[in-house]
Amino acid sequence: MRGLAVPGHDGPPDNPDLKSPVTSAVRARAATVAARHRRTSPVRFVWLDGLGRGRLARMHFRRLGRSGLKVSELSLGAWLTYGGTVDANEAEVCMREAYEAGVNFFDNAEVYAEGKAELVMGQVLHNAGWRRESLVISTKLFWGGEGPNDQGLSHKHIIEGMSASLRRLRLDYVDVVFAHRPDFATPVEETVRAMDLLIRQGKALYWGTSEWPADRIATAHAFAERHGLFPPVAEQPQYHMLHRDRVEREYLPLYDSIGLGTTVWSPLASGLLTGKYNEGIPEGTRLADPQLGWLREKVLVAGNLEKARRLTAIARDLGASLAQLALAWCLRNERVSTVITGATRVEQLRENLGAIALVPRLTTEIVWAIETILDNRPAAS
Ligand SMILES: NC(=O)c1ccc[n+]([C@@H]2O[C@H](COP(=O)([O-])OP(=O)(O)OC[C@H]3O[C@@H](n4cnc5c(N)ncnc54)[C@H](OP(=O)(O)O)[C@@H]3O)[C@@H](O)[C@H]2O)c1
Questions:
Q1: In this predicted model, what pLDDT tens digit does every residue of 297-325 receive, in sequence order?
Q2: Cα angle vertex 116, ends 115, 117, to 5°?
Q3: Domains (range + CATH), the chain
Q4: Which protein residue has the closest C-alpha to ligand 1 atom 30?
Q5: Model pTM?
Q6: Residue 127 and residue 362: Cα distance in Å, rounded?
């Protein structure tokens, strides 16, 4: 599908200093927010505007829920990119740039490009030769192929799927393995025991769930506790300005009771929250892909577009891009352990990394202005 290009979209905004007319009271509040976000020691700095013109910002690390594992607050994933639209060279450039900026968490899944995404990531990890201890690599199991035992969360598929993923990633272990969806045809106890076995075998260090209902996570956790097994430590849910319910309402009881962490996905709603679809569908973008009509129909709806247009104005007033504002908005939520970004080009990644420095500048006034536009705050949040 072809559509209108949006001139000037791809670069970050012109005002690199991100100055805004803030009062001293507002600055003081921003400093408090900033202090909350200086949770752990920084290792690297990223440029705020993604082009090396703006302020330097630190990458922060957050604990993955109650576990001791520390993940960079921004991370990088491989869905619809590696092994597909993004060639191996660009993937390597992006992963190297991310790593240099302090990203330690890289996300994948056995199903991404039918295993090719893991092959690409495995090759980059091999080429880069980074210290294994400096990385947090995750993959997800559920859709491993066409056969009756290549899918789901049976003991058989979890053990076999993990071995195949490790071969493709060229790793001895992943740091986190996620159950990519709930499997209602397999007893949850069987899945918990299989995940526990992966950890005891040293093939994974932690496990989590992805898009599981809260009650099933609680059941899995309680079973693991009762039997002295490794419990799930994190969920991987969709979370962005236009999709909030699970993270902000459904999982609320789990954060404190079981110490659930979250590695949230599609923070830019597949690109809608960059503003690049505000005036049409630019050629070569994800939502222009004829094979992704299902995604386009879900995301590119009139209400969402109107919100994106109005949010773009708020970002502009801050001297930031909408992508940076949308990512910073996710980072503001302390229940979020890491925000998994996606990028088809290194320029996107650079711009997105600039979101980190925007977080402390999201004052109460700005957050309320955003809430007014979104008008979708879950009742219990
Ligand atoms: N657990 C799950 O079920 C699940 C599901 C989905 C994703 N995930 C994970 O979450 C990761 C991120 O998800 P996502 O890729 O959907 O994230 P996203 O941030 O919502 O979308 C990323 C896409 O938006 C566009 N984009 C990103 N930054 C941009 C910028 N600054 N300017 C313009 N366009 C920009 C790029 O697409 P184009 O350039 O092609 O337009 C990019 O590939 C995935 O890689 C995966 O690891 C998990």
A1: 999 999 999 999 999 999 999 999 999 99
A2: 90
A3: 60-374 (3.20.20.100)
A4: 348
A5: 0.88
A6: 39
